[in-house]
Amino acid sequence: MTKRFGVMLDCSRNAVMKPEKVKEYADLLLKMGYNMLMLYTEDTYEIEGEPYFGYLRGRYTKEELRSISEYCHSIGIEVIPAIQTLGHLNSIFRWGPYRQICDMEPVLLTEDERTYALIRRMFAACREAYPRATVINIGMDEAYGLGLGAYLKKNGYVPAHEILLRHLGRVIEIAKEFDFEPIMWSDMFFHLEHGQYEALNTPEEVKLSDEVIALCPKGVSQVFWRYHSTNGDGYRNMLREHKRFGGESWFAGCAWTWNSMAVSNQATLECTLPAMDACAEENTENIVMTMWGDDGKNCSFFSMLPSLFAVRRWHQGVKDMEQIKKEFEQIIGERFDDMMLLDLPGDYGNTRPYDNTYHKYMLFSDPFCGFLDSLAQPHAKENYVAHAPRLQALADKGGAYAYLYQNMANLCRVMAVKYDLGVRTRAAYEKKDIVQLTALVADYRATGDAVEAFADSMRDVWYLENRPHGFEVQEHRLGGLAYHLRSLAGRLEQFARGEVASIPELEEEILPYWVTRPAPLKEGEVLPSVQFWRDMITVNRT
Q1: Considering just the CA atoms, what is the radius of gyration of the chain in Å?
Q2: In the Cβ-directed half-sphere of 246, how many Cα atoms lie within 13 Å?
Q3: What is the pTM of this model?
Q4: Pairing mode, if any, of strands 181-185 and 78-82?
């Protein structure tokens, strides 16, 4: 029988959720049948004697975390700290005191006593901040390049699995000093042996050597995470393989909140319901739904309530979606199908269930350079035109989550004009259609205004739920986009008036992006996923 069923809130990707909002989320989790909350903090927690750790990043104080922990305990929610003791520590290496313990970003320099002094202070801070916690997540995931930076210069080449195992042994010892039971993400063991992790499915693919299993230190439980798959057999095979490590069994699934500008509850269900069936069959003891904020934490965690509720009820054996929807409205006070409409900006047929960034890269793509315009799909613009009033109607109804509908309505209004702006501009330029190019100037300016309206509503969401730290990233991105669109409008006007002879970017041929021929895609093909803002805005160096 499952011991823990929880949610992990990423409070490290710029957005640090306000303590009162964490407590509000804990109240909702309790109503939905959850009993655990994991707070993921890479450097966003206070460590005594480490002023640069989480500096200007909205870090939690020990008192705030203790208050969250005590409140959750009072209502029956266990709080588990999730930190990093090897990789994912990019943010600290910009500061001088930590550069000397950097192997290569984002990985700590192992087998250096200064590193273990810092890790010991991490655990001391967590023990003070989470006095009731028995379990701690020590991270250890995705530490690619381990031993190939400063470690290599200092020690020569040592196989990465040896470095990992020695380091893990030291961290387990420190965890025990502070009376913590450590758990860790399991991917590095599979990555070092198979060169991959999430694509492993068959019994032969997932199998680890007896040597690796034997060498893995005892006293740490492995968390199997998988976010992208709908393959139930793959989940089962990996869960079985993880049992060979010993310790408690853990599974981490996905609630899709990262990289995109909009959540995907539907992708969450498509990927996670098969996992819940596998976990039930394999008697997985602990389950956590992760909500990451990669690439700036664009989405509200409150947008995921329908899929989180459905996943929990599914695991409890309720597989009638109509019953689930009815219960959701009774418990949360919002119609299930209404909240699922928060997916609309990222909902498009030619994507894998978990790749819903196409709207984001068409939002930020440069209309003149147009290197992503080969991915523009028929009818997408019309979809946004239709989506905006549906979402606006829900916002106008009011209620606890009206601000989320408003934000997504504003995003759809941007995309209703911006989506094919580059395609239309290039087509008119190639024909030297001055009338059409002059008309497009108004679209550029209107899109700039719409981007600013979207930024305003996104700020409303952010400031309601999170500390202000980190929103400057969103303002630089969206503000830069609005400014750039108006700048391009001015250049179009100059060309239309004959003040400049050409627009050099529009003279260049647009080559296919990741595909061997231009859009539209054939049936069964999928759009490529461009995950990060930096890869969407330009092919030039940022």
Answers
A1: 24
A2: 10
A3: 0.95
A4: unpaired
